[in-house]
Amino acid sequence: MKPLSISRAWEETVAFVKREGSLLFPVALLFLALPIVLFQQMVPPELMANIMKAEAGRGQAALPAVPAGFWLGFALMMIVGLVGALTVYALALRPGISVGEAMKLGLQRLPVLLGAGLLVAAAGGLAVLALAVLAAVFSLVGGAAAVTALVTMSVVIAMLFAAVRLLLMNALAIDRPVGPVDAIRQSWALTRGQFWRLLAFLAVVIFLTLIVQTAVQSVFGVIGGLVGGAELALLAGGLATAAISAVVQVYFMVMTARIYRQLEGAG
Fold first, then answer.
1. Helix (H, G, I), strand (E, B) or coil at 59
2. Closest to 73 in 3D by CA, of 43, 51, 48
3. Among 1, 129, 156, 187, which residue's CB has the most CB atoms within a 10 Å radius?
4. CA 144 → CA 133, 136, 137, 155, 252, distances in Å?
5. Concatenated DSSP letters of the chain
6. How far apart are CA 106 and CA 108, in angstroms?
7. Using CA atoms, how far apart are residues 173 and 186, in angstroms rounded to an integer?
């Protein structure tokens, strides 16, 4: 098994972010936080109301018609965010590179990540379809609820497993001249034997992110509500959440890059 020290990766991450934060954080705010805030303003009020109602456990009404521009904005937000992420990875993996050079490299490697993402999504879709057909067959002989629960659990476990094994794909695509298939294959190879360590790392990141985002959104939402009512509360909460999310993502991506360097060097 390849050696992997999460604590060492964290120490290197803190030192790197402290040294290069003046480059990393503006990129994250511009490419990761700002597009989310702008996209939130495109969400139809009726759709947002239904989402909030469902989250509050008060049921879910029929979704309103969503304009085509909504989906175009969503796709654009995802692409801009991916370019920003690749730019951060380039800055983390190639010390001394300028922001412009990192952004150019991110744009050059973007098709690789999009292709790899489509391949993973297609494989996942086929797996879900196969499980759904299997569940339908078994439901004919009874026990439909149990079969549905088992299928759902299998899908969640498979998605989690794939997410962990492909955790290094973005860093690898920036660091190596690989195509979509090789990016998937080599990320899978690098993470072999490291599943539980990487799963624990992801679990901690997700847990802390949810806590911080909830606290920040609540505090700034209350302040915005007191100053300007419900609309300002929503805007202030969204801005604060997007900003803190961008900061957390910087640490996450830099640490993922340090983990990649450990495993890549060991290989």
1. coil
2. 43
3. 187
4. 12, 8, 9, 16, 40
5. -----HHHHHHHHHHHHHHHHHHHHHHHIIIIIHHHHHHHTTS-HHHHHHHHHHHTTS--PPPPPPPHHHHHHHHHHHHHHHHHHHHHHHHHHSTT--HHHHHHHHHHHHHHHHHHHHHHHHHHHHHHHHHHHHHHHHHTTS-HHHHHHHHHHHHHHHHHHHHHHTTTHHHHHHHS---HHHHHHHHHHHTTT-HHHHHHHHHHHHHHHHHHHHHHHHHHHHHHHHHH-HHHHHHHHHHHHHHHHHHHHHHHHHHHHHHHHHHHHH-
6. 5
7. 10
> What is the amino acid identity at position 76?
L
Is residue 77 over pLDDT 80? Answer: yes
Contact 149, 78 (CB under 8 A): no
CA angle 160, 166, 167 (to 5 degrees): 85
Structure tokens at 222: 């209350």
Q: What is the amino acid identity at position 199?
A: L
Q: How far is Cα 124 from Cα 122, in angstroms, rounded to an integer?
A: 5
Give the whole-angstrom CA distance, residue 17 versus residue 170: 19
User: Model confidence over 203-252: pLDDT tens digits?
Assistant: 999 999 889 888 888 887 778 777 777 767 777 777 888 889 899 999 99
- Report, in angstroms and rounded to the nearest whole number, the Rg of the chain calculated over CA atoms: 21
The residue with tokens 């659990």 is 153
Q: pTM for the whole thing? A: 0.84
Using the structure block, give the residue that is written with the tokens 């937000």: 77
What confidence tens digit (pLDDT) does each residue in 36-47 have?
Answer: 877 777 766 566
Nearest residue to 174 via CA among 261, 89, 262, 78: 89
Residues in the chain: 267
- Angle 99-139/6-28 helices, nearest 10 degrees? 110
